[in-house]
Write a structure and sequence with these properties.
Shape: globular
Number of helices: 21
Number of strands: 0
Strand content: under 5%
Structural class: mainly alpha
Radius of gyration: 24 Å
Distance between the termini: 28 Å
Helix content: over 70%
Length: 479
Amino acid sequence: ASGTLSADYFINIILQGYHGEYMRKGSRLTTYILIALAGGIILGFILNISYLNNENMRLTAAGARISELDQALNNLRDTASAQFLQLSSEREAQLKVREEALKAANKKVEPFSLMGDVFIRMIKMIVAPLVFFTLVVGVAKLGDIKAVERIGGKTLLWFLSASLASLVLGMILVNLFKPGIAMNLPLPAEGASTGIGKATLTLRDFLYHVFPTSVIDAMAKNEILQIVVFSLFFGIATAAIGEPGEKIIKAFDAIAHVILKITGYVMNFAPLAVFGAMTAVISTQGIGILKTYSLFLTEFYLGLLILWLILIGAGSLFIKKRIFRLLKHIKEPVLLAFSASSSEAAFPKTMLELERFGCRDKIVSFVLPLGYSFNLDGSMMYMTFASLFIAQSYGIHLDFGTQVSMLLVLMLTSKGIAGVPRASLVVIAGTLATFNIPEAGLALLLGIDPLLDMGRSATNVVGNSIATAVVSKLEGELT
């Protein structure tokens, strides 16, 4: 009234300046990642046609011969005949040739793959303590068990709905496009192996995986679901003891901020990691792999685009037009997850961006870690898409009831294995065995799995970010 400027005015000016500086830094990092992505693809292509030419020729020749031998073995009825034994022996020899050629190729590009591997290791050293400290603080700040139940109920309802929508979408699209029909493959030899483990569907194994025998062991193995379970108990107990618990909350909150600061340091290496990872993938797989599986890749990425639209549409029902600002905030974590083929690599940065978007830290700390065990939307869609693609490739007809049963099995077996390398393939392997579909069919996808993993990892980040924003809005905690 007297014409003087309030303290709030100056605070807003300072905050706007800080936000502008942060946005400039974030924009620069995104630009560097895009440049590294393009540079890795170009260098990978050059290395593929020159530096790794001999290894690639051996891989191609061995792969073609193995396919011929598989077809010949399937045509033989007498498994004790001399011809069958001779063909089996030759197949084993060709498998060794392919394995040796692949090892030689990987050895040559090891300096590049190390760049991505080291970055992922640095991120993994952050994830377990970050999930623990932030989730404990988030749960403790919620105040009581009723608040945890209320927010947890909303979170799990969203997660289950999103997971079911992702699985159903994958089932619909693979039945609509029928990408496996063109393969028209004979059934593989009995006992043919892909070298991928299986995720068994037993209640005992599932419960053992959920509840840790040691939280130290869970952190050492980056078992996110087990860390989440212990953190929930720890956070509720911390809130229950009153004043002494407040000291723990302050200390844990400070530690969480220190870890987030470390995240900022680690993120500076992201462009190098992206460059190395893309160079290694393209140099060993080659651009030709895109042409060979172009139909499957195109249809799968079209499916991911539709899934993005569904998730964005569902999110906009709650946060309205702010959904577009959210997407702008998470573009860097999404790009990082896509480039590194790891949604886990983007976890710390996603947490930061959601808080800057306006989600309260206690909601972010509670919802986002749960999402990494229960809400991997891109991976869920891929599981039905890939499983039915393999069945189609071998001419195996699955009726509607069987497909629904497969969908429910995937819904159960997929929970809590986000920290397992090639987790989606592990789950698919177990599901194929359950429905008597040849597990050797996974070999059809191994070559392009890194390219598929990029899309589903980015989608996982989008799905978890929208879920966190929606739960924040429902709780009235979106500023």
